[in-house]
Design a protein that fits this description.
This protein has 50 residues and is of the alpha+beta class. 26% of the residues lie in helices and 24% in strands.
Length: 50
């Protein structure tokens, strides 16, 4: 399961939102600190509606 899918699953279980959008924005951070460390972190934007 991808990091994005795990984030979505945990948010859905915890908050049961009416709408949920999780966008992977890691490509916007290429070259930033930790971007090339290979430890699996990413940058995600979350939008939800209760």
């Amino acid at each position: 399961m991808s990091i994005q899918a795990r984030i979505e699953e945990k948010l859905k279980e915890t908050f049961a939102p009416e709408r949920l959008s999780v966008l992977n924005e890691s490509h916007l951070h290429a070259g930033h600190h930790h971007a090339e460390s290979g430890h699996g972190c990413g940058w995600f934007r979350r939008r939800s509606r209760a």
